[in-house]
């Protein structure tokens, strides 16, 4: 049977290779639920403006709901020769209910597909936002369970200054918070109803666009319907998809950095954490191996999510107005991004919930007195030495310790005083880690009180 879109004008159907090349049902079937939802809203409006009778509307709605149930149950037969999800559903509807032929009045697949994608993406955004909150919860949970643990903080992957392990994890909570904000913001631009744009130029029929928008929940904070304001933009705009993919790409980059930290921490060299067996895999050859595959795959999948964004930007860049079939290529990138980022967020969170901290190894690493070299310089600053000079003096202290093969705090007071007479009898007290941590109380600093305050703040936010 020839596709509905070719009836009348065409003498023959497409060749098998053309059909295979142009079909989208193999991936856009995912839109079925939203396609049906949109069709019911459109039909309801058509009845309101007198295009359908009440009985016709009822028959169409009932049949669409039945088709939906069959798709849900896996009993619906998708026909590749009908190209896409829209044609498959409409053709089946019309086969069952002849007045289904009225459903496409004043509608094009161009505004229909834009509608379906927006509806689908709205749901995805809500789901992803929830997953991001879950990940924040996992990070805060792990931080809270190990609130006393101090580790070296790193710059250039070299030991820099001591920080609470919780402080390190809360850095990611902040990053994920920005992802959540961006996602929520993007939602507003997804949540606009394009239906009524037709193929490009709206319709001569008196559609009630706002009524359709209201039915489908395309409303602003005040409950007012939000519809696209230009029919050409309405059918050719994919900014909403690109914006989502961009938010997802940045979130994935954040996850990838977290994954990298986890991978390092789980290595024998760091040995700061132990990931539960269920979130690791073995080696087929080396019996001793326990690999952090969930973290590695998250890092790896980030490449795909970033690539999807590039693919969509490139897809759009040369397109003349308005709808071009190229746009069909948007779906696999969008779907893949949504599914991938959700999986990454969920699995990283679950992995962290099943990760324990090797407190002894963390304490050993954090006890390196070199981490407090900056504190020693601050000590001299408190005594009135200009910081640049203090930095130079402590540099000499570090060099001396290195020459003698000693840790910084193993130098004698006399050795310190010989390097600078400003050092007082209390100078070596700087290397008391507990005291040092108590002194970092600026807003956002890794001090004992401040980290407890931030942890408390996040626990409250995530509970509410
Ligand atoms: N499958 C198409 C897509 O994804 C639906 C719109 C087709 N419109 C058209 N005029 N051929 O973009």
TrEMBL record:
Q: Which domain of life is it from?
A: Bacteria
Principal location: cytoplasm
- Show the segment(s) annotated as Disordered: 1-15
* GO biological process terms, semicolon-separated: L-arginine biosynthetic process via ornithine
**What GO molecular functions are on record for this protein?**
argininosuccinate lyase activity
Cross-referenced CDD domains: Argininosuccinate_lyase
Which protein are we looking at? Argininosuccinate lyase
**Organism of derivation:** Pedosphaera parvula (strain Ellin514)
Q: In the UniProt record, what gene is named as encoding this protein?
A: argH
């Amino acid at each position: 049977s020839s596709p509905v879109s070719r009836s009348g004008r065409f003498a023959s159907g497409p060749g098998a290779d053309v059909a295979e090349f142009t079909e989208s049902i193999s991936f856009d079937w995912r839109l079925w639920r939203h396609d049906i939802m949109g069709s019911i809203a459109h039909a309801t409006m058509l009845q309101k403006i007198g295009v359908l009778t009440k009985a016709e509307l009822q028959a169409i709605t009932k049949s669409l709901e039945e088709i939906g149930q069959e798709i849900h149950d896996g009993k619906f037969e998708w026909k590749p020769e009908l190209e896409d999800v829209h044609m498959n559903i409409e053709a089946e509807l019309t086969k069952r209910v002849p007045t289904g032929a009225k459903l496409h009045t004043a509608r094009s697949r161009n505004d229909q597909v834009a509608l379906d994608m927006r509806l689908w993406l709205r749901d995805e955004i809500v789901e992803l936002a929830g997953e991001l909150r879950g990940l924040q919860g996992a990070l805060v949970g792990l931080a809270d369970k190990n609130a006393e643990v101090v580790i070296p903080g790193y710059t250039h992957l070299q030991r820099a200054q001591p920080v609470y392990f919780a402080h390190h994890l809360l850095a990611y909570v902040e990053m994920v918070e920005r992802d959540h904000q961006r996602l929520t913001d993007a939602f507003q631009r997804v949540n606009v109803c394009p239906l009524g744009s037709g193929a490009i130029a709206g319709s001569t029929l008196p559609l009630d666009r706002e009524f359709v928008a209201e039915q489908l929940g395309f409303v602003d904070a005040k409950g007012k319907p939000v519809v696209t304001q230009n029919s050409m933009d309405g059918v050719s705009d994919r900014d909403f998809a690109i914006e989502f993919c961009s938010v997802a790409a940045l979130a994935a980059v954040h996850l990838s950095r977290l994954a990298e930290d986890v991978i390092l921490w789980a290595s024998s060299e760091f040995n700061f954490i132990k990931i539960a067996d269920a979130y690791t895999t073995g080696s087929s050859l080396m019996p001793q191996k326990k690999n952090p595959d969930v973290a590695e795959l998250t890092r790896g999948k980030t490449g795909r999510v970033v690539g999807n964004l590039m693919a969509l930007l490139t897809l759009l860049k040369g397109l003349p107005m308005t709808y071009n079939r190229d746009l069909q290529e948007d779906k696999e990138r969008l779907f893949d991004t949504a599914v991938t980022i959700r999986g990454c967020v969920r699995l990283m969170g679950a992995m962290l919930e099943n990760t324990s901290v090797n407190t002894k190894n963390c304490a050993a690493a954090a006890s390196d007195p070199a981490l407090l070299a900056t504190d020693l310089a601050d000590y001299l600053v408190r005594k009135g030495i200009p910081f640049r000079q203090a930095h130079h003096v402590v540099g000499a202290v570090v060099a001396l310790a290195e020459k003698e093969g000693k840790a910084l705090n193993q130098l004698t007071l006399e050795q310190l005083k010989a390097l600078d007479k400003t050092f007082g009898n209390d100078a070596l007290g700087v290397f008391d880690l507990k005291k040092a941590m108590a002194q970092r109380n600026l807003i956002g600093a890794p001090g004992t009180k401040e980290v407890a305050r931030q942890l408390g703040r996040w626990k409250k936010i995530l509970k509410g």
